[in-house]
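hiii so my PI (J.) wants the whole complex modelled not just the main chain, which honestly fair. so below is everything: two entries, each one labled with what it is. i double checked the lines twice but i was tired so who knows lol
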Amino acid sequence: MLKITKTPKCYVGGSFIRSESGRVAPIKDASGAFFANIPLCTRKDLRNAVEAAAKAGPGWATRNAYNRGQVLYRLAEMLEARAAEMSDAISLSGISKKDANREVRASIERVVHYAGWTDKFQALLGSVNPVASSHFNFTVTEPMGIIGVVAPDEKPLLGLLSLVLPAITGGNTAVALASGTQPYPSILLGEMLATSDLPRGVVNLLTGRRDELIPTFATHAHLRGLAAVGNLDERKALQIGASDSVKRLKLIPSETPTDWFAENAQGLYEIRDHLEAKTTWHPIGA
Amino acid sequence: MSTRNFHALRGLLNDVGAVDQVGIDERVAKFATRSIKKNAKVFGLKLAVTMVDLTTLEGKDTPGKIASLCQKALRPHDATDIPPTAAVCVYPSMVKHAAKHLRGTPVKIASVAAAFPSSQTPLRTRIAEVRAAVADGADEIDMVINRGAFLAGELQLVQDEISAVLEACGDRTLKVILETSELETYDNIRAASFLAMRVLRPGDFIKTSTGKTSANATPGNNQVMLEAIRDHFLATGIEIAMKPAGGIRTAKQALHFLVAVKETLGDAWLTNTRYRFGASALLNDLVRQLVKEKTGAYQAPYTFSESSSAY
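here's the output for the full assembly
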């Protein structure tokens, strides 16, 4: 039977794109045989992804919280339906089928976890503040804008989702660079995002070389925050680059292994990392 | 259309020659493939800034809004190496407010007049409007042609009206808006260009659009008009200027338009006395790209606009 090979493409602005540069890099399966060519995205692709995220931002941020939860839950449904395929994609790296299945299960649960948070975090992170004048004073949270994500190399699905989900749960949009060593699961994730009800541009997934893209993630002024896993040099580059545009950084060292399965790899404080607090004074009786 | 008008239009179309639509579309598609990087890009971006007619044509325009527009035209950015724009473009009633800020500066005051954007009022009303704008201090008048008359084949009427407005302008520059989207075909755009150019003085403009219809300046319309200007220049030696307007929002689009100018009319037209952009948002993106070239970091659009959105 004729074998139909697949051209993996990145998911940007709701479309499946090749890199504008036309560059690709081959990836191999566990046996060392050629599997597919993965796009090597450039800083221009990153720029285009940020434009797409900017377009999607206002619509996503102003959706009601309950609806955002429904959309995220729908993503979990899409992941669930293609869990076996995703598990195969993860085990391309050579890890056992059992471990790959475990990562897919944990990822689905993580999506559902954040789907539950969308209409609850405001109540926990906002507050009514006592003040010494006749004012009603309250603090509400607002999304920061576009968040850049640099995913870890290991746990190509769970690691990526653990960083992207809290950002979009809070109403931000995200531009993410997938695992450098195992990019294929992010390609599949893009296909699932496209069939979930997530509006185009809310999540944009790039594949490519970390050393080429990290400087642009750092300096791009339109990215308001970064969540990145990196080594000492990469973290330093991100800190220096981000200082000009005063980004909020969430840096996770790659030298010490992160337990992405852990209970504390998800939750309210991960969402808070990508929110701004707005405090309003309202005169009483006016 | 009466037989006489039909023959008038047919005669003009035969006289100025037809446009190869496929050829034009192929040609303009090529302009977008030129690689303009580094120094050439900075040159192009700065040149485009000097060519902008910074425009506000809204019912909600106020003297305060005009004041801030004028300040922006004079100094588009904190960085002093970014030049001022060519002009501001406002409604006639706002000319006197703009004049307060721009008299004695290199930035000109352009005013749309003559029943913009429809041209559907009696000629004497339109002439009076032009005279009022000139009296208030407008340096340049942007008039619209009578498309209804053009499409009905009343070519002499269209040309006479342009002449009448030209006379009312005195020594001020006139820009004749063809409103290309309402002329339907490239052939008509070329014919209307010639109709206008034959009564214009050297340095007067032909302009694509009002910005008030769904379709505005496109690379194709721009190219048809540039080639008409070229052919008119080669036949008569009269240098007519060009202004695409409406829908040009990004620096990249502007650079593609400048490529078209350079490759059709040459360097002599790469100056703001011969080429302009009618735009409101374009300046923001030009400045944004200039800052990007200077700092090496991609910039957020809201830093360069009035938007208060985080996106």
